[in-house]
Each structure stands twice: as structure tokens, then as C-alpha cells.
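Regression test attached.
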Amino acid sequence: MRATGGPDIAVGDVLLSVENVSLAFGGVKAVSDVSFDIRKGEIRAIIGPNGAGKTSMLNVINGFYQPQHGRITFKGATRSKMRPYEAAEGGIARTFQNVALFRGMTALDNIMAGRTLKMRKNFVWQLLRHGPALREEVEHRHAVEAIIDFLKIQEIRRTPVGRLPYGLQKRVELGRALAMEPELLLLDEPMAGMNLEEKEDMSRFILDVNDHFGTTIALIEHDMGVVMDLSDRVVVLDHGIKIADGTPDEVRSDQKVIDAYLGVAH
Amino acid sequence: MHLLYMILIDPFVQMASAPDLLVQTLWEGLVSGMLYALIALGFVLIFKASGVFNFAQGIMVVFAALTLVGIYEAGVPAFIALALAIAVMFLLAFVVERGVLRPLVGQPDIILFMATFGITYFLIGFGELVFGGDPKVMITEPLYLPKGAITYHAFGGMVQLQKLDIAAAIIASLMVAGLAVFFSKTRIGRALRAVADSHEAALSVGISLEQIWVIVWFAAGLVALVTGVFWGARSDVSFALEVIALKALPVLILGGFTSIPGAIVGGLIIGLGEKIVEFYWGPLVGSGTDAWFAYVIALVFLLFRPQGLFGERIIERV
């Protein structure tokens, strides 16, 4: 799976780099002068205590927030401003901390919605639902069925997602993001609120996505065990400032990280 | 005792004794109900996609009809005038998105609601400026809309169906069916529903809110045009028509603000209820019940089923 457009970037090269990004809401600084990069093919974790600016960082990367300072380079193109659908077009998909699904729609329709950008037949054909538009619909349906098989959610295809248990909703949301065939997948606490079994399932899906499709993944997670097992590299934020960056082992033994998590008096 | 008889028994005796009148009343009710449903449909389209209660929907009906007649009166052939009126509705959708919705993104719903008041009064002023304030007659003949009535001798009497009403029913059904298929089966339809459910999730999969808003406002404009043609053909085309927007409110309360089938069923119920009550019970209170009866139905619904017949159940996690 790979999004089209843009230069090819070899595995291990920098796919996205964040340079000196600062974001403030009024007087509240959510992110201050943070720099890090994400390399193609890796699983990159962003961790930190509550209010560290992790989700804000993710929102900056996919264009929900515009940083006041700093630059972001994705696939070699630098930008200071980008709209969310431009990010989506460029191959950045994401999931949300509190599950943002289309609740009234079925699991299948939710995942089909992820194909929006890949379907390009024009309005008139869409209205007629005939010829090219129908062929296109069928073609994309195949791709979506493959994702449904991959995530083992065949039985709930036709269920409105609002009725599904939380763990399955998270899985459908991952499916919707995968349907975009992203180059960079942003996961905001993919395992929040899950029980152990669900967490194990989700971890396996994340690893499989990374393995099989070579999708680069950036994830935010609270469960340290999960983070250390899954990720290749970890960046640690605290109060909007980057305090550590490195392999799980390096980060784990970093005194500043330990202090941030255990709450040392400043 | 006599009063109770007049309220509870006499109307039904009348219905049974003159079934042809009953059928005629039911038909009239269905026809006006269908027009209510069309107006409500315009509201629902916009409410679903943007959460905005578009107060201007009523005036859009008038504006669309005025544009059509105005262009025709300027000497343009009818069907070209129709095409131009459609183009004007598209332009309106575009301008509303650029000039009103986009600058107000993320503002509370009440602000957007107030903005639609602004659109309403702008359209009134602009419409009067361009087309004049005099009532106009809808161009039915140049558009090949049928005239006259079909008379059936049945039910021990006769029933008269206006051909125009039949045409309205057919065209409205086709339009609603088309919208339903479009909404449920196509990419853009899916995107519309997606936007209705969650703005941020829609953005994250690459749906452009701007584009969707133009599309729904355009769809609502088309519905307004169709409504305007048929409503205008029954009375004159004038700004007095804007009050029909208020008739859509009880329909929406009945059907639920987010449901297309709800708008249709709600419209039909209100239309039927109004006509039946006016015809059989109206004389008891000196007529004029159709001015308020719809709101009574709406009140009853608000008491017992506030989400409407088809609206989404309001469940909130606390």
C-alpha cells in the first residue's frame, strides 16, 4: 500500500521532519520549539505525561492546527501551513483519541469513506451511479473488503458503528485510516480504554500494518509496556518541550524522562 | 352533550356519509403535505451536513421562483431560464459558503443560525431590487406543466385531481428518490453523511468541508427551486411565501431534523392533519385552524417524542 505522488523515499530515510515547531493557544503554550523526525518504515512513538502536547503535535502534523513557528517537511516538501485534506491527499492518515467515527454509518461505509480521495469519477456519473462510477465503486469495494479481512471484522460489516463496542470501534477507525493507503499513519492512543486482550490484538495489527505494507507509523500511547515493545524510536514530550529522543532503551534510562513520569519537584 | 357529539361523532358521520369528500380532502392534504415536505427537505439537507438551521430556506424558495420568472420575463426561453435559475442557485451556494460559512467556521451554532437570518434579509432586499416587489405569476405553461383536472366518478360522488398536483407529486418523488440513492450509494453522498457525523473525522480522511457545503447548499437550492415552481403555481410568487418556512418547523419537529424520510412523512402527516381538521372540525371554531393546527401537533410531539419520528435518539453519556 502506498500513496501516489511525491518523490520516492527509501526505507530509513527521513519521511517527515518537524523543526522548531511552536504552538500556543492564547497564552497557553501547547508545544514549544520541538524538533524531531520520522523515518520511512519505522514505528515512532510520542509519549509524555498528560498535557505534554502529544495530541497537539499530531494535530499540527495532519494540519488541524497551524503552528505559529517552525516548519514541517513531508516527503521533501516544506510547509508552514497546510489544510487537513491536503495532508490526507499527501498520504497522512490518522485515528483519534476518542474515536471519531461516522456513527450513523455502517462499518463498511466508514471504511469506504476512507477511499474518498481515491475515487475521482465526477459528480454527474455519481448522480447517475452508472458506468465508470459504478465500476469504480466496485473496485474500491474490493480494496475495502481486503482491509475488513485483514482486521477480522467481517461479521460487523453492516452494523452501524455507534452500536459497536469500543474496542471494535477503534478497529474500524484503524480500517478507515488504512483504506486511505497512507504513507504515514498517525495513531492517537490506539489502545486507550482497552482491556489486555484488545490491546494485544491492536498491537498485532499495528505491527502487521508496519510489516506487510511498510506503512510508517507515529503513535501516541500511555501504556509504557506497549510503547517499548512496538516502537523503534521514542520521542518524549513534557509540558510542550522535548525532553528525550531515542530508542526505547535509551529513553527508559533517561533521568529527565523518569523525573517527568514520577513527578519530581522542579 | 351536543358539543361532545359535534366534536367526537359528527365529523366521522360526515366522513362516512360522503366518502368522495373525504378522499378529496385526503388528496388535498397529501398535496400540500408534499410541499411542506419539500421545504423541510431543504432544511434537513443543510442541517445534516453542517448542523446549521437554515432560516433562509423559506426565502430561498421565493428567491429561486422569482429568479426563474424574472429571467423568463426578461425574454429568455423557459427552459433556458430554468437552467439559468439553477446556475443562480449554484452561485448562491458558492457565495454563501465563501462569504458566510467559511469565515464563521467553528463558531457556535447560534452564530451560524443568526447568519442565516442575515442571508434571509439579504435575499429579500436583493430579490426586490432585481425583480421588483410585485407578486409574479409562475410560468407553468412554458415549462409544459399540465393544467386542468382529472375528474373521477367514484365513492358515490366525484373526486377532482389537479393535473398540476399530480405532476408535482411525480417530480417530487423522483427528486426524493434520486437524493436518497445519491446519499446512500455514492462517494459524495457518503462524504455528505460523513460530514454530518463528525467534522474532524471527515477532514482526516480528506473530505473537503468547503466542497461539501457548496454541494448541500446547492442541493437545498434545487429543492427550493422545485418547491418554488409548484408552490408558486398554486398561488403567486411573492415574498409573502416566506412564511411557509415557518410551516416547515412543525414538520421538522415531527420528522426529526436529520432524517430525509422523516421530512417526507412529517410533511405528509402535517398536510393531511391540517386539511382534515380544517374541513371536519374547523367549522366548530369558525375555521382558520390550518394556521395553527400544525404547531399543536408539533407541541404534542415535543412532549412525547422530542427527537421526532425518525430522528436520532438523544443519548448522552454523563
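Expected vs. actual: identical. The radius of gyration of chain B is 21 Å.
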